[in-house]
Design a protein that fits this description.
Elements: E1 2-4, E2 7-9, H1 17-20, E3 28-33, E4 38-41, H2 43-49, H3 53-56, H4 69-80, E5 85-92, E6 98-109, E7 115-124, H5 125-152, H6 158-173, E8 177-184, E9 187-194, E10 204-206, H7 211-218, E11 222-226, E12 245-253, E13 256-265, H8 272-311, E14 315-319, E15 325-328, H9 330-336, H10 340-343, E16 358-362, E17 368-376, E18 381-388, H11 390-427, H12 433-465, E19 469-475, H13 477-485, E20 495-501, E21 508-510, H14 512-528, E22 534-543, E23 546-553, H15 587-597, E24 601-606, E25 612-619, E26 630-633
Length: 638
């Protein structure tokens, strides 16, 4: 039997119509011959109209009201000419009631197209409305599920997502309370809730004895547990008085069970529709939880990278594919003097080395940087790391200079000693007594110069390693100043020496020998760097609990930029002709080290009218301290 142009087609005549009708069909189906006598009356028709088949077969069915006969005949006329007619109408029940029905009528024809009769299918309008209402409700729930899924995915904060899942669960299923429990090893932890007391959050239970454990053992995605009473071991039951049904749905993240959705029913009932919705929501919940977890992991990773990026002592810059700065950490700003706002979107303020190579570059500020660059193939970006190597660069240059200057300083006296010693050896008898004495005196002077040079080198080395120790005790600084300057006028007829020590100058707490070396070096420098002569003034006075010593000259002076650097090892000021005075650049380094070792300080200043003023500050001795001599290790900031 087939359907052609809205007609039923059969291989037999009207007597074969009964074979064309499915007796067990859920709809009421009635077949008539051309004279409208009943040929087939199925069980559904018996239930709908109340007549049994044996009562009506071969007769006209008394189901069409008189006032609707014209409508009925018009329908038959319409289907005879082709097509199918569907309309809402009314028909009699055996007990005389009028039934609201929907009738679908078609012609019954032979394979040759001859009309054999008619087939009518009857549906109760009440059942149709219920079916349509159920379909409409399902459609509304599906639409609401779409909204709910969008809602739980609208936030990426995991605790908020879990609470939204619990709230959405009650809204979709009509449950009295909802919850989300995470699976943590062999226990469950309540991490999301709705219409449950807040103290329930974080509570745990054994996984094995819970409904989630039971659900996992069944291998199904959802479980509906009815008849839940006081004997139920499910801990959540205690938070909802009168609960009689619990529905559980499994939520998986990355293909593995992560947790479960709980719907608890006390006043409402759960059906298969609610269970289907729970299963759908559980699937979407797993996706939402997975997204939130991935986002939180990304946030943690970015926070970790940002902390490392910001806390790194090296300057770090991230460049885009066009070599423009997109990130610039605090150390980069400190090293270059350029803020992030000043460099973002621009090339870095230094050239870039090839990937894997190192480039040493000097900024306009004079700071030296070691720059490394590495590319990120996945993003086309590059990471640039740079650090301050100014100190190492200066030390390297100072060492090179030290070697050159020391070689020069040693070569001259050694050459002179060697020359005079050779002359005495070869021409002793030919030289007069005065000539021999002069040669020996020159050898002695150069040997003394070599000794002083070696003393400087040793003191500089000890000061640099902190191995030098000093003796701290009260001593008379005025006496040391007078002793240091006593023989100076005889050294040069172009210099004048002036000493001004405050009467009653307090004793100084420090090392007398170290102070002697300190004063000697300052006086030597004053002579050396005032080659044209002039006044050399030494003064001392008390300032509070300190004693100040000043050594002034009228020499070449020190450039402002060099006043701090001259106290570093192997450094001499580069201004003017200072290099022509020789030396290895350790004298003032030793002076500062000895001053600091005694708790004092030394600084360089310009002298009004030209020249240099070296200012030394040392601590006064504490009167009647009762302290004996102390050996203290020398400390410096080098």
């Amino acid at each position: 039997m087939g359907d052609v142009d809205g007609s039923w087609v059969t291989d037999g005549d009207a007597d074969g119509v009964a074979g064309a009708v499915v007796a067990s069909a859920p709809d009421a189906i009635v077949a008539f011959d051309r004279d409208l006598a009943v040929v087939s009356w199925n069980a559904a028709a018996e239930r709908l109209f109340g007549w049994q088949a044996e009562e009506l077969v071969g007769k006209r069915a008394p189901i069409v009201p008189r006032e609707l006969m014209a409508e009925h005949n018009a329908v038959l006329e319409r289907v005879r000419t082709g097509g199918r007619v569907s309309l809402r109408s009314r028909r009699y029940h055996r007990d005389g009631r009028l039934l609201d029905v929907r009738v679908d009528t078609s012609a019954l024809r032979s394979p040759t197209g001859a009309l054999l009769g008619y087939v009518s299918v009857y549906h109760s309008v009440e059942d149709d409305d219920a079916a349509q209402g159920g379909a409409a409700r399902r459609a509304r729930l599906v639409r609401r599920l779409t909204d709910v899924v969008a809602d739980i995915n609208a936030d990426l904060d995991l605790p908020i997502v879990l609470d939204r899942i619990a709230a959405s669960l009650t809204e979709l299923t009509g449950a009295d309370a909802g919850a989300f429990a995470s699976i943590e090893g062999d226990r469950l932890r309540l991490v999301g809730l709705h219409r449950l007391p807040e103290e329930a959050r974080g509570s745990t239970a054994e996984l094995a004895t819970s409904l989630v454990g039971k659900l996992l053992r069944t291998g199904r995605p959802v479980l509906l547990e009815t008849g839940v009473g006081d004997g139920c071991e499910e801990p959540l039951r205690a938070y909802v008085p009168g609960v009689h049904t619990i529905a559980v749905g499994l939520a998986a993240v990355g293909g593995r069970p992560y947790g479960a959705l709980y719907a608890l029913f006390a006043r409402h009932r759960a059906s298969h529709v609610e269970l289907e919705l729970l299963e759908l929501l559980a699937g979407h919940a797993g996706i939402a939880v997975g997204n939130a977890m991935a986002y939180q992991e990304a946030v943690r990773q970015r926070a970790h990278e940002r902390a490392v990026f910001d806390a790194c002592a090296d300057g770090i810059a991230v460049l885009d594919g066009e070599s423009r700065v997109v990130r610039w950490n605090a150390a980069a700003a400190e090293l270059t003097g350029l803020t992030a706002a000043e460099v973002i979107g621009k090339p870095p303020p230094f050239p870039l080395p090839a990937p894997g190579e190192k480039l040493t570059f000097r900024l306009p500020s004079g700071r030296w940087l070691d720059v490394l660059c590495n590319e990120i193939p996945e993003t086309g970006e590059a990471v640039v790391d740079f650090r301050d190597v100014t100190r190492a660069k200066e030390l390297e240059e100072a060492k090179d200079l030290f070697l050159a200057v020391t070689g020069h300083e040693l070569r001259t006296p050694i050459t002179i000693v060697r020359g005079f010693a050779s002359t005495l050896d070869r021409r002793w008898d030919a030289l007069s007594d005065a000539e021999r004495r002069s040669a020996v005196r020159t050898i002695a002077e150069r040997a003394n110069a070599l000794g002083r040079l070696m003393d400087h080198l040793l003191l500089g080395a000890w000061a640099g390693t902190g191995a030098l120790t000093i003796t701290t005790e009260p001593f008379d600084l005025g006496e040391r100043i007078r002793a240091a300057t006593l023989g100076l006028p005889a050294l040069s007829d172009r210099h004048r020496i002036e000493v001004d020590v405050q009467p009653g100058l307090p004793l100084v707490h420090g090392d007398a020998l170290a102070t002697e070396i300190l004063l000697g070096q300052l006086l030597e420098n004053a002579f050396k760097y005032s080659p044209d002569g002039g006044l050399i003034r030494v003064a001392a006075w008390a300032e509070g609990d300190r004693v100040v010593v000043v050594v002034e000259d009228e020499g070449v002076g020190i450039a402002p930029a060099d006043r701090g650097r001259i106290f570093e090892r192997f450094v001499q000021a580069d201004s003017g002709n200072r290099r022509r005075f020789g030396g290895v650049g350790l004298g003032l380094y030793i002076v500062r080290s000895l001053a600091r070792a005694q708790g004092g300080e030394v600084t360089a200043h310009p002298r009004p009218g030209g020249g240099t003023r070296m200012r030394v500050v040392l601590p006064c001795a504490v009167p009647d301290s009762g302290q004996g001599k102390q050996k203290a290790p020398m400390t410096t900031d080098q």
